[in-house]
Amino acid sequence: MAHELPQAEVGIFGGSGFYELFEGECEEVLLDTVYGRPSDVYTIGTIGGRRVAFLPRHGRNHSIGPAEVNYRANVYGMKLLGVDKIIGPCSVGSLRLDIHPGDFVICDQFVDRTKDRPDTYFTHDRTLAVQHLSSAEPYCAEMGRIAAQCCRDLGITVHEGGTVVTIQGPRFSTKAESEWFHAMGWDVVNMTQYPECWLARELGIHYCNVSLVTDYDAGCGEHAPVTWEMVQETFAANIEHVRALVGAMVPALPSAIDDGCTGAAGLVE
User: Fold this and answer.
1) Closest CA to 90 of 166, 157, 29
2) Could you report the per-residue pLDDT of 75-113, keeping only the tens digit for each?
3) In CA terms, which of 132, 189, 207, 212 is 20 to 30 Å from 125?
4) pTM of the full predicted structure?
5) Residue 68: DSSP 8-state
6) Residue 22 lies in a domain
7) 121 assigned to a ligand binding site
8) Which residues are part of the catalytic machinery?
9) What integer pLDDT is reported at residue 127 of this predicted model?
Protein backbone atom coordinates (compact mmCIF):
# COMPACT_ATOMS: atom_id res chain seq x y z
CA MET A 1 0.00 0.00 0.00
CA ALA A 2 2.71 2.47 1.04
CA HIS A 3 4.50 2.43 -2.32
CA GLU A 4 1.30 3.61 -4.04
CA LEU A 5 1.04 6.72 -1.85
CA PRO A 6 2.82 10.03 -2.30
CA GLN A 7 5.90 10.05 -0.12
CA ALA A 8 7.38 12.57 2.32
CA GLU A 9 10.44 12.70 4.53
CA VAL A 10 9.34 14.93 7.42
CA GLY A 11 6.02 14.85 9.25
CA ILE A 12 4.46 17.65 11.27
CA PHE A 13 1.63 17.38 13.78
CA GLY A 14 0.04 20.65 14.80
CA GLY A 15 -2.66 23.23 14.31
CA SER A 16 -4.02 24.89 11.19
CA GLY A 17 -1.37 27.62 11.06
CA PHE A 18 1.18 25.38 9.33
CA TYR A 19 -0.54 25.19 5.95
CA GLU A 20 1.00 28.57 5.12
CA LEU A 21 4.51 27.11 5.21
CA PHE A 22 4.10 25.03 2.07
CA GLU A 23 5.79 26.18 -1.11
CA GLY A 24 3.71 25.82 -4.27
CA GLU A 25 1.03 23.21 -4.78
CA CYS A 26 0.03 20.68 -2.12
CA GLU A 27 -1.65 17.31 -2.28
CA GLU A 28 -4.24 16.00 0.17
CA VAL A 29 -4.25 12.33 1.09
CA LEU A 30 -7.09 10.62 2.95
CA LEU A 31 -6.00 7.42 4.68
CA ASP A 32 -7.96 4.70 6.43
CA THR A 33 -5.38 2.63 8.31
CA VAL A 34 -5.58 -0.74 10.03
CA TYR A 35 -5.84 1.32 13.24
CA GLY A 36 -8.75 3.40 12.00
CA ARG A 37 -9.09 6.85 10.49
CA PRO A 38 -6.53 9.55 11.32
CA SER A 39 -7.64 12.94 12.64
CA ASP A 40 -7.92 14.52 9.18
CA VAL A 41 -6.48 14.36 5.68
CA TYR A 42 -2.70 14.61 5.35
CA THR A 43 -1.42 17.56 3.35
CA ILE A 44 1.81 16.89 1.47
CA GLY A 45 3.93 19.69 0.10
CA THR A 46 7.40 21.19 0.12
CA ILE A 47 9.17 23.24 2.80
CA GLY A 48 12.74 24.32 2.19
CA GLY A 49 13.08 21.81 -0.62
CA ARG A 50 12.00 18.87 1.59
CA ARG A 51 8.83 16.85 1.15
CA VAL A 52 6.65 17.28 4.23
CA ALA A 53 3.40 15.65 5.40
CA PHE A 54 1.23 17.69 7.73
CA LEU A 55 -1.68 16.52 9.90
CA PRO A 56 -3.68 18.57 12.44
CA ARG A 57 -3.80 16.19 15.40
CA HIS A 58 -7.14 17.59 16.65
CA GLY A 59 -8.63 17.91 13.16
CA ARG A 60 -8.55 21.15 11.20
CA ASN A 61 -11.48 22.54 13.21
CA HIS A 62 -10.06 21.39 16.57
CA SER A 63 -13.03 19.05 16.98
CA ILE A 64 -11.18 16.06 18.49
CA GLY A 65 -10.32 16.13 22.20
CA PRO A 66 -6.87 15.05 23.44
CA ALA A 67 -8.15 11.75 24.82
CA GLU A 68 -10.09 11.06 21.59
CA VAL A 69 -7.22 11.54 19.14
CA ASN A 70 -6.45 8.32 17.29
CA TYR A 71 -2.71 8.59 17.89
CA ARG A 72 -1.97 5.14 16.48
CA ALA A 73 -3.67 5.94 13.18
CA ASN A 74 -2.05 9.39 12.98
CA VAL A 75 1.50 8.10 13.43
CA TYR A 76 0.92 4.97 11.36
CA GLY A 77 -0.30 7.14 8.50
CA MET A 78 2.92 9.13 8.64
CA LYS A 79 4.89 5.88 8.34
CA LEU A 80 2.84 4.82 5.32
CA LEU A 81 3.72 8.14 3.70
CA GLY A 82 7.43 7.43 4.11
CA VAL A 83 8.07 9.84 6.99
CA ASP A 84 11.11 9.05 9.13
CA LYS A 85 11.28 12.30 11.13
CA ILE A 86 8.39 14.02 12.95
CA ILE A 87 8.24 17.51 14.44
CA GLY A 88 5.53 17.71 17.09
CA PRO A 89 4.69 21.30 18.10
CA CYS A 90 2.27 21.60 21.02
CA SER A 91 1.11 24.05 23.65
CA VAL A 92 2.12 23.48 27.28
CA GLY A 93 1.66 24.98 30.71
CA SER A 94 4.73 25.93 32.73
CA LEU A 95 5.40 24.22 36.05
CA ARG A 96 8.32 26.55 36.82
CA LEU A 97 8.40 30.28 37.39
CA ASP A 98 11.56 30.59 35.29
CA ILE A 99 9.82 29.13 32.22
CA HIS A 100 7.56 31.89 30.95
CA PRO A 101 4.62 32.16 28.53
CA GLY A 102 6.07 32.66 25.07
CA ASP A 103 9.18 30.57 25.82
CA PHE A 104 9.87 27.37 23.91
CA VAL A 105 10.90 24.10 25.57
CA ILE A 106 12.46 21.27 23.56
CA CYS A 107 11.46 18.37 25.80
CA ASP A 108 13.62 15.26 26.03
CA GLN A 109 11.61 13.26 28.59
CA PHE A 110 7.94 12.55 29.25
CA VAL A 111 5.89 11.32 32.19
CA ASP A 112 2.63 9.59 31.30
CA ARG A 113 -0.39 10.44 33.46
CA THR A 114 -3.02 9.48 30.87
CA LYS A 115 -5.36 6.50 31.02
CA ASP A 116 -7.06 4.12 28.59
CA ARG A 117 -5.27 5.46 25.50
CA PRO A 118 -4.18 2.78 23.02
CA ASP A 119 -0.44 3.35 23.27
CA THR A 120 1.32 0.51 21.46
CA TYR A 121 1.39 -1.30 18.14
CA PHE A 122 2.46 -4.48 19.92
CA THR A 123 -0.92 -6.15 20.24
CA HIS A 124 -1.65 -9.84 19.77
CA ASP A 125 -3.76 -9.28 16.66
CA ARG A 126 -1.11 -7.24 14.81
CA THR A 127 2.29 -8.72 15.72
CA LEU A 128 3.87 -12.16 15.90
CA ALA A 129 5.34 -11.51 19.32
CA VAL A 130 5.41 -8.81 21.98
CA GLN A 131 8.45 -6.58 21.57
CA HIS A 132 10.06 -4.63 24.39
CA LEU A 133 11.80 -1.42 23.34
CA SER A 134 13.76 0.93 25.56
CA SER A 135 12.03 4.22 26.30
CA ALA A 136 14.96 5.68 28.24
CA GLU A 137 15.50 8.36 25.56
CA PRO A 138 12.14 8.75 23.82
CA TYR A 139 12.96 11.92 21.87
CA CYS A 140 15.52 12.41 19.10
CA ALA A 141 18.51 14.21 20.59
CA GLU A 142 19.91 15.38 17.24
CA MET A 143 16.60 16.88 16.12
CA GLY A 144 16.31 18.50 19.54
CA ARG A 145 19.71 20.15 19.19
CA ILE A 146 18.77 21.47 15.77
CA ALA A 147 15.46 22.82 17.10
CA ALA A 148 17.18 24.61 19.97
CA GLN A 149 19.82 26.15 17.69
CA CYS A 150 17.15 27.32 15.24
CA CYS A 151 15.33 28.97 18.16
CA ARG A 152 18.48 30.80 19.19
CA ASP A 153 19.13 31.88 15.59
CA LEU A 154 15.59 33.27 15.43
CA GLY A 155 15.90 35.08 18.77
CA ILE A 156 13.34 32.83 20.47
CA THR A 157 13.85 32.12 24.17
CA VAL A 158 14.38 28.37 24.37
CA HIS A 159 14.96 25.82 27.13
CA GLU A 160 16.93 22.92 25.66
CA GLY A 161 15.73 19.79 27.42
CA GLY A 162 12.90 19.31 29.87
CA THR A 163 10.27 16.88 31.10
CA VAL A 164 6.67 17.11 29.95
CA VAL A 165 4.00 15.42 32.04
CA THR A 166 1.06 14.40 29.87
CA ILE A 167 -2.36 14.50 31.51
CA GLN A 168 -5.60 13.03 30.23
CA GLY A 169 -7.52 16.22 29.55
CA PRO A 170 -9.60 17.92 28.46
CA ARG A 171 -9.64 19.42 31.94
CA PHE A 172 -6.63 21.31 33.24
CA SER A 173 -4.80 20.19 36.39
CA THR A 174 -6.11 20.89 39.85
CA LYS A 175 -3.88 23.08 41.99
CA ALA A 176 -2.87 20.03 44.05
CA GLU A 177 -1.93 18.05 40.94
CA SER A 178 0.04 20.95 39.55
CA GLU A 179 1.91 21.45 42.82
CA TRP A 180 2.75 17.74 42.84
CA PHE A 181 4.09 17.91 39.27
CA HIS A 182 6.22 20.89 40.27
CA ALA A 183 7.50 19.13 43.40
CA MET A 184 8.54 16.16 41.26
CA GLY A 185 10.80 18.46 39.25
CA TRP A 186 8.87 18.24 35.99
CA ASP A 187 8.94 21.28 33.72
CA VAL A 188 5.77 21.57 31.63
CA VAL A 189 2.35 19.94 31.34
CA ASN A 190 0.49 18.95 28.17
CA MET A 191 -2.33 16.68 26.97
CA THR A 192 -1.04 15.13 23.73
CA GLN A 193 2.66 14.21 23.91
CA TYR A 194 1.87 10.71 25.11
CA PRO A 195 1.44 8.38 23.32
CA GLU A 196 2.22 10.36 20.14
CA CYS A 197 6.00 10.48 20.60
CA TRP A 198 6.25 6.90 21.85
CA LEU A 199 4.26 5.46 18.96
CA ALA A 200 6.68 7.16 16.59
CA ARG A 201 9.52 5.46 18.44
CA GLU A 202 7.88 2.05 18.05
CA LEU A 203 7.79 2.59 14.29
CA GLY A 204 11.40 3.78 14.14
CA ILE A 205 10.47 7.41 13.42
CA HIS A 206 12.67 10.11 14.97
CA TYR A 207 10.47 12.50 16.96
CA CYS A 208 11.20 16.04 18.15
CA ASN A 209 8.97 17.93 20.57
CA VAL A 210 8.58 21.69 20.27
CA SER A 211 6.61 23.02 23.25
CA LEU A 212 5.23 26.55 23.22
CA VAL A 213 4.52 27.73 26.75
CA THR A 214 1.10 29.38 26.83
CA ASP A 215 0.55 29.82 30.59
CA TYR A 216 1.70 29.10 34.13
CA ASP A 217 -0.07 26.01 35.45
CA ALA A 218 -2.38 26.20 38.47
CA GLY A 219 0.35 25.26 40.94
CA CYS A 220 2.36 28.40 40.16
CA GLY A 221 0.53 30.34 42.86
CA GLU A 222 1.76 33.78 41.87
CA HIS A 223 -0.41 33.62 38.75
CA ALA A 224 -4.09 33.14 37.96
CA PRO A 225 -5.16 29.56 37.10
CA VAL A 226 -5.02 28.73 33.41
CA THR A 227 -8.08 29.15 31.19
CA TRP A 228 -8.68 28.01 27.61
CA GLU A 229 -8.96 31.65 26.55
CA MET A 230 -5.51 32.32 28.02
CA VAL A 231 -4.00 29.40 26.10
CA GLN A 232 -5.57 30.52 22.82
CA GLU A 233 -4.46 34.12 23.25
CA THR A 234 -0.82 33.26 23.99
CA PHE A 235 -0.65 30.67 21.23
CA ALA A 236 -2.08 33.11 18.68
CA ALA A 237 0.46 35.74 19.75
CA ASN A 238 3.34 33.31 19.19
CA ILE A 239 2.20 31.23 16.20
CA GLU A 240 4.55 33.17 13.93
CA HIS A 241 7.47 32.00 16.06
CA VAL A 242 6.29 28.39 15.76
CA ARG A 243 5.96 28.69 12.00
CA ALA A 244 9.35 30.37 11.71
CA LEU A 245 10.96 27.61 13.76
CA VAL A 246 9.43 24.82 11.69
CA GLY A 247 10.40 26.64 8.51
CA ALA A 248 14.01 26.84 9.71
CA MET A 249 14.15 23.30 11.11
CA VAL A 250 12.90 21.34 8.11
CA PRO A 251 15.74 22.26 5.70
CA ALA A 252 18.29 21.96 8.53
CA LEU A 253 17.47 18.34 9.34
CA PRO A 254 19.95 15.71 8.11
CA SER A 255 18.73 13.14 5.63
CA ALA A 256 19.72 10.33 7.98
CA ILE A 257 19.98 10.20 11.76
CA ASP A 258 21.86 7.43 13.56
CA ASP A 259 20.71 7.36 17.18
CA GLY A 260 19.58 3.77 17.57
CA CYS A 261 15.93 4.55 16.82
CA THR A 262 15.24 1.42 14.80
CA GLY A 263 11.70 0.70 15.96
CA ALA A 264 10.15 -2.70 15.46
CA ALA A 265 9.95 -4.90 12.40
CA GLY A 266 6.86 -6.27 10.72
CA LEU A 267 4.38 -3.58 11.75
CA VAL A 268 3.74 -1.62 8.55
CA GLU A 269 1.73 -3.13 5.71
Assistant:
1) 166
2) 999 999 999 999 999 999 999 999 999 999 999 999 999
3) 207
4) 0.91
5) T
6) yes
7) no
8) 215, 217
9) 65
